[in-house]
Structure formats: C-alpha cells, structure tokens
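Case study: Zinc finger protein.
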Amino acid sequence: MYKIIISLIFVQYCLAQICQKSQILDALSQACLSCSSVCENCFNISQQSCIGCVKNSYLSYDDISTCQIQCRKSEFVDSESKRCIKCKVNGCVQCTSSQICLVCDQNLVLDKNNNQCNAKKGICESDQQFLNPPFESRKCTNSCLQSYYQNYNSQICEYTQECPQIQQLSSYIMDTFVDEIAIIKENQYMVISGVSCSFAIVDINWNIITKQTLLDKNSFEIDVTQDESKNYFFFTGMYGGCMRGQRFSVMNFETLQIEFDEKNLEQQYKIIYTDDVYKLVFMVDNQASALIWYDINNKKINNRKISIRLFYITYIVKKMLQCCS
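Here is what the predicted structure looks like once written out:
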C-alpha cells in the first residue's frame, strides 16, 4: 500500500515538472491543463484564478486573481507587484506610485501644494454647495448623499469609506479617538473626534444621520495628538468648530452650513473655554500671553485681546457667583 502511494506521489511530482509555466496539474486526470490566456501562472483554469499575468496585463485592483489588459481610470500599475493600484487622492485620475496626483477628473483642479483635487471655481452656484461624483456630471448639491461626506476644503463629496476620518459600515465607526459624545435632541447624539476634526450626528441605534469633517487634518502641518485634541475643537448647542494652524471654522449643525471660516488668524490658538450661556468660545495663543474669543451669535472674532490672568480671575469669580446664587 505504501509503495502505491509513494509511486503516485512520484508520478505527480514528475508530471508537475513536465507542466509548463502557464499550465496546472489536474490531480484527478494527472494531466497538464492550460491556464486562462491572460494568466502567466494560475491555481485553476478560470480567468479569475491567476497568480501572475502575461506580459502587458496586470492584476486587478478589485480582484487580485483577475488579470486585465490595462488599469482603469484613477489607477496606476505597481511595477513590483504588476498590480493595478487605486489613486487614494479623491477625484484623481492619474497619479504616481507615491500617490502624488498628476491629473484630476473633469471639473476639478489640482492643488499641488496639498495634493488634492478641488472643485473648479464657479463650478457650483454657491461656495456652500458640493460637487458630486461622477464629477463630469457637474451636479452640485447643498449636502452629500448618505454614503458620502462633505469635504469643505475641496468642495466635493467624498465617498465615506475612502475618508480617513470617518467610515460607515453596518454601524458608526471612527478610526480615530472619540473625544466627546453629547445629547443634542431626543434620541440624537453628537459624536466628536478632535484629532480628525470630525463631527457626526447619530441616532439611538448608532446609525449616521449626518457627518462632517470641517478641516482636513492632512492639509495642516500641525499634528494634533489625542491628549491635545480637546484644545482644538468646541461644541455647544447646535454649533461646533475646529482650530487648525491659523484657521478656525464653525458649523451650524441644524442648517448644516459653515457660518464662520477664518483662514488667516494672526497666529495659532488653542480653545480653552466655551461659554454655553453667552455662546462665546475663548482661545489662547501658544505663548499663553493673550486671549481672543469668538462670538457665535454675532459670527465674529473679538480681536480685543485681554490678559490670561484677567480672564482666569473673571472666570473664577463667575463660577463662585454661580455656586452661591
């Protein structure tokens, strides 16, 4: 019995050596079967069973066992793996192996400094609208569809699962640290990630109602850590905002409109206190030498700087009065 088994193994080994590179050994018939014409090597004879591709063919991005003659739009060939790789820059139709975008899709313009594709100026009727994919359709809306999020930097709708800050599967998932969860209405909650400057309104079952990333963290040199994140966002009532570098943006989550967007502050600031009663957001500079505040009701930053010492004295007195009243 053992001799028969050893003999069969030996025959199979010999046949395997006889089979050509583009063939596979059929264990039952002990015959060499040809791979699909697009496969250089294979594990089955179907077109979806390639291990490698013939010359001038490449493994598919969506199915690494399938070969295709050329990569699709927004994909490039990885010279090492001979596989089509998708450009990670949203709206990019041609990029390098380092994921540097070279050409953007129709109705988009390349921002080389930030390596992103932005909606062309005037493509939408309003700066508060967003260009929807497919971008050649030139369709602009005030808000994006359920599976997309509104990128306020590029003014386009990006597919949620390609967004580095927020992903939606069967439930709400944030791949960054969640700083705060607040009740905003009956059975509605605001979930906030200061690290990624992301806000999401979810229902009691954790399903997304709307989600917004106010400032793309990849567009700024400043890197906010988990411990520092609370200094770079605020949320009060139906208003939320973020600070990145010298830019400060505020959104009304009831209307889903950006109500304030200052891109050129004198210097970098940190958010240290939010007055929920008077709707004031206090910010301090990096030297902790002076303080400014944003007035939510009047939609403006007060540039009359006051000393930090005076602010804390006023704040402590206010808290004492609240306790005693």
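For the exam, be able to explain this: The chain has two domains: 87-163, 167-325.
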